[in-house]
Amino acid sequence: MGRAQGIHFVIGVALPTCFIGGYYLQAFFRCRTWREELINNDRQTHRDFNATDSMFLRRVLQTTDATSDAKPDIKNPGLRTSPDFLTDAENDMLLSEIKAMLPKYGTRLGEKRRQQLELLGATPRDIESIRIISDRVDDFDLMTLAPWGCGDSLKEERIPPVLRHLIRRIRATHQNCGRVRHISVEFTSAGCQYKVPSAPNRFDGMEYCMFSLGGDRVLTFSPRQQSLRTGPQVAKLSWTDFDTDVFLPRRNMVQVANGARHQHLMGARPGTTQSFGGSHSAENIVPMPKEHALLQIHFEGPVADGKVRSKFKRPEWIAFGREPTQEDFAPWDANEKPTEEDMRGTGLLNFFFFKWLLFGARDKNMAQTGSAI
What we know:
With 373 residues, the chain is an alpha+beta fold. The protein has two domains: 51-299, Jelly Rolls (Sandwich); 330-369, no CATH class. 34% of the residues lie in helices and 19% in strands. It has helices spanning 2-39, 51-55, 88-105, 111-119, 124-128, 161-173, 233-237, 258-262, 316-320, 340-346, 348-357, 364-369, and strands at 57-59, 79-82, 131-134, 180-188, 193-198, 207-213, 217-223, 244-248, 253-256, 264-271, 273-275, 285-287, 292-299. The strands form three sheets. A six-stranded antiparallel sheet has the order 2-9-6-13-4-3. It is globular.
C-alpha cells in the first residue's frame, strides 16, 4: 500500500510539479534574457540613425549669448524621428479625442509635482492648467485611471478608436515593437510648458513614441548620471552641460529607445517659448501653442531576429517588474514615522524587518525614488 501511494504521489504531484516548475523556470530565464537584449539593444531591431534624425537633434548650448547659433557635435542617444507621420487632420482628431477625455480622466498634478514646477517658476495658473491622463498610478493624490489598463492587463479594444488607429500605424511602420504597455497624456491650456526631467518606469516597457498634438514642442534629454540644475538657471543653461534637445513638430513622431530610454531623463525647459538647442536666435525660437498635449505610447520592445519571445501567459512582469501602486508614492504618515526613541527601543534590525519589509512603510525620499522601478 505504501508503495502504491508513493507511485500515486510521483504521478500525481511530483511529475506535474517538475514539469510546471521547469516551464516556469524556462520562462523566467528567457524573459530575463529578453530584458537584457532590450536594454543593451544593437542595431538588429532598429533602423540605423540617419541625417533626418540629426536634423531634429541639437546639443544644448552652454551660453547666455542670445546671438550664438553654434551647432556642437552630437551623438544620438537613441532618438529616431519620423517626419510628417501625422496629417493635420489626424493631429486635430487626436487632440479633440484627448480633450473629450479630460472631464472624466484628466487628473491634476500631485503635491510633489506641484512643488517641482514651482521651483522652475510656474505660476498657480500654469500648474492648475495641467491635466494628466494615465492608465496607471503615478505620483498624484487621486486618479481616475484610463479604462484600457496597463502592462500585461492592457486591453487594446478599450482604447479609443482614434488612438487604436495610431497604434496600428506605428506597428505598420515600426515593425516588431511589441505590445502596448502604457499610454499617457500631459495636457496644458495655459500656453506654457513646465516638465521636470523624469524617466518612465521599467514596468512601462523598453521604448516609447511621442507626439506633440496642437503645436510644435522642444523636449530635452538629460543624462541620468549628471547632477541637475534647479531654479532660474534651467531656463538659461538647461539641467546639465550634456543635454540634448529634440525638436518635435506637431506632425512628427519621435521613437525613444536604447540609451535615450534607459540612460536619460526627459523634460522640457520652462517658458512660453522654447529655444531649440539653447540658441535664442529668431529661427530657433519655438512658441508654445495655447492648447497642447504631449502623447506618449509605450511598447514592450522588439526581439532580435532569431530570438523567441516567451509565450507563457505574458510573463512580462518577470522582465519589467510589478505595476506601480499608490503606496509607492505615499509619504509616511506622521503617526507612523519613526522617532529616535522608537529606534532605540526596537533596534535598527528589528525595525527594518518588521516595520519596513512586513508592513511596507515608506518615507518621502523612498517614495520619490520608488517611482522608477
